[in-house]
Write a structure and sequence with these properties.
This protein is mainly β and about 400 residues long. Helix content is about 5%, strand content about 50%. It is globular.
Length: about 400
């Protein structure tokens, strides 16, 4: 029955009417999938949100943000668990929320002014948002790991979970090597200075909405109790003094027992080589359990990615035994236990934005190059495709 349903959805998506009025040059700037896998919302860089109902196989809503601030290259998008609410945040901390269950979709809109305060001459911006199941709360994550909980029904700040922390300034010099595509590159000694810190865009909420993870993007990951705002624990990992380290994404497993992060090690100088990997943590013990791909015996890390490809996101599949890892031109499935790639998906895209693991355990929903499509996780074959923003 499921396979017939998927075929029906594929036919509808392929033949659905094209929407009018959107400029052809827009690209994806944010995306979110509801936890039931029925609704996906994709924001474009013209301050609009396109909502696709995967049950009927077509775009259900075209939503315009309440305030025009010019193009937003990176925005935050959230969908409630049941797909009823869609949230959008531009880079200037202005939040727009729509209730799609109502005929009148006039949005709730407000500015999270306190997230825009200047800290050490750096403007704090909204980078990630997430709905809580109480029908009134929205988590808002900003620079440096700051997290606030807003009551969007009153448009007021309910509580601050994390004040965040400015990434530390570091100066370093190094000499080392990295192995990419089986080729070894030897770097000459050089110096670099991290004076601005890494601007974190990562926050993750557990499936039961009891725990939230945040990072300052460079050397710290925290786990917080959503209800009390208290720190549960801080996660640490080995950081090479010879490499610039960044934490690019956070994601909980379905049972909330594991946390996946993408960690990048980048050399300085005019020619840099990336040695990105995904790290898997035991949430309750606070221990790093796996690195994907793992280190070799000599301490080097082998990857099948070119030096110009950067890992951007890692997400657990339904079993929690594999990671779907996104990079700048595609994605792939990796086995956590072995640290080996088991299935390659799309590759060679000009602009690969994000993939989402569908809760049925079989499908992966992908946003790339103005295209929304679905792949079978086991075979890597495309199931259906839909052109975005048209």
């Amino acid at each position: 029955m499921r396979s017939r349903t998927l075929v029906a959805v594929a036919i509808i998506l392929a033949s659905g009417p094209a929407a009018l009025g959107e400029p052809p040059e827009v690209t994806a700037s944010g995306a979110a999938l509801s936890s039931d896998g029925q609704v996906i919302a994709v924001a474009d860089d013209a301050n609009s949100v396109h909502v696709y109902d995967l049950k009927i196989g077509k775009r259900s809503h075209f939503l315009k943000a309440s305030r025009e601030n010019g193009a937003s290259r990176r925005t935050a998008v959230a969908v409630s668990a049941d797909g009823r609410l869609v949230g959008y945040a531009d880079e200037n901390a202005y939040i727009t929320i729509w209730d799609l269950s109502k005929k009148d979709t006039t949005p709730i809109a407000f500015e999270t002014a306190s997230t825009r305060k200047v800290v050490d001459k750096q403007v704090v911006r909204v980078h990630t948002i997430a709905f809580l199941p109480d029908r009134k709360s929205l988590l808002v994550a900003g620079r440096g790991g700051s997290i606030q909980c807003w009551d969007y029904t009153t448009k007021k700040l309910a509580r601050t979970i994390s004040e965040g922390a400015k990434s530390p300034n570091r100066s370093w010099k190094w000499r080392g090597r990295v192995v990419i595509d089986g080729m070894e590159f030897e770097e000459v000694e050089g110096t670099s200075n991290d004076s601005n810190g890494w601007e974190s865009r990562a926050m993750a909420v557990s499936q039961d909405s009891k725990m939230v993870a945040s990072t300052n993007g460079i050397d710290s990951i925290w786990l917080w109790d959503v209800a009390t705002g208290k720190e549960i624990r801080k996660l640490s990992f080995d950081k090479s003094p010879q490499m610039y380290t960044r934490v690019a994404s956070l994601s909980f497993s379905r049972d909330g027992k594991k946390l996946a992060t993408v960690i990048g090690n980048q050399s300085g100088g005019s020619r840099s080589y990336i040695a990105d990997y995904a790290a898997v943590w035991d949430v309750h013990e606070g221990k790093l359990t796996h690195e994907v791909p793992p280190k070799e015996k000599d301490g080097s890390r082998r990857t099948s990615y070119r030096s110009t490809i950067i890992l951007t996101h890692a997400e657990f599949d339904v079993s929690g035994e594999n990671l779907v890892i996104d990079h700048t031109v595609g994605n792939a499935v990796w086995e956590i236990a072995t640290g080996k790639k088991s299935q390659s998906f799309t590759d060679g895209w000009r602009s690969f934005f994000r993939s989402f693991v569908h809760p049925d355990g079989e499908l992966v929903i992908v946003v790339a190059d103005r295209t929304l499509f679905c792949e079978n996780k086991k075979t890597g074959k495309e199931v259906w495709r839909r052109e975005l923003f048209r």
